[in-house]
Write a structure and sequence with these properties.
Elements lengths: L1 H5 L3 E2 L5 E7 L3 E3 L7 E3 L2 E7 L9 E3 L2 E8 L2 E7 L5 E7 L10 E4 L4 E5 L2 H8 L4 H11 L1 E8 L7 E3 L2 H7 L4 H8 L7
Antiparallel strand pairs: 1-2, 2-5, 3-4, 5-12, 6-13, 7-10, 7-12, 8-9, 8-11
Helix pairs in contact: 2-3
Length: 186
């Protein structure tokens, strides 16, 4: 995991590391983007790391498959229905505990990912600096995201404060819970 946490990635707008791993050259008309041409698919490595353990709430118009390579991540999905439906999924290797190695997120669903707090706490509790650093690197989570039709920034958006207020209108508790997960605009 260390090679992914320091050397191979680009730092992206979600404040995580990512690396494009495949971009199909063939184009198709995307039914989710007014039939504009998009690559058939794209895929990336996406890394949540102990130094950047949280993503921000965002939405893709295309379907996204998340496939676990290593580690664990907690995904929160918010379906913008009335009332909003909130789901939590742990991507991890322990299927007996309900963890999953693959997560499909459909179109029009808000999502965010984070390293589980208990994993971060365990890493920080290591008795020596050397053991703590090793534990921090073991906490990192590497996922492949496959987007179909392929990813395009025009098909992506971040949840804004105004959007969050509208989504959870009248529910101050949920608004406060998710406010920390909004992208900070500078």
């Amino acid at each position: 995991m260390e090679q992914y946490s320091t050397r191979s990635e680009t730092y992206n707008c979600e404040c995580r590391y990512y690396k494009l791993t495949d971009l199909q050259e063939n184009q198709i008309a995307s039914p989710f983007a007014d039939h504009k041409p998009r690559p058939m698919s794209t895929s990336i490595f996406y890394l949540l790391s102990h130094d950047r353990p949280r993503g921000v709430i965002h939405m893709n118009k295309s379907v996204t498959y998340h496939v676990l390579h290593q580690g664990r991540a907690r995904y929160t999905l918010i379906h913008p229905t009335s009332p909003p439906k909130i789901e939590h999924h742990i991507m991890g290797p322990n299927e007996a505990e309900g963890e999953t190695r693959m997560l499909l997120v459909g179109t029009g669903v808000w999502k965010m990912s984070e390293l589980p707090q208990e994993d971060l706490d365990t890493a920080e509790a290591a008795p020596t600096d050397a053991e703590r650093e090793q534990a921090r690197n073991r906490v990192n989570c590497l996922i492949t995201e496959v987007v179909v039709p392929g990813f395009d920034w025009d098909d992506h958006k971040y949840l804004t404060r105004e959007g969050l207020e509208k989504l959870f209108e009248g529910d101050e508790e949920k608004f406060k819970r998710f406010e920390r997960d909004l992208k900070v605009v500078r």
